[in-house]
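Question: does this match?
>
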Amino acid sequence: VQLQASGGGLVQAGDSLRLSCAVSGRTFSTYNMGWFRQAPGTEREFVAAVTWSGITYYSDSVKGRFTVSRDNAKNTVYLQMNSLKPEDTAVYYCAVKREIRAREYDYWGQGTQVTVSS
């Protein structure tokens, strides 16, 4: 399984960005997808997830501002980020978890940089 994240960039506070993550393979519809981020000097943190059935989860820091969605026909998961803040600056990663009860994600993309200026 290969993941390709894209859509990052440099924006100002209050702007929006949409990240995309294209996933290879024929069984994308069965995958549980997650978005994570890592800022310099910090540990990677959970941002959002969408299960194979469409249930979504968000971290408290992005709830109400970010929306995760998926398009199974395109093998792609999205992260719509609105009202961006400087503290959202990080490298964003998408990941696949094949078993919903698994603790760890199985595959990771290469990351896309999001920089929010104040």
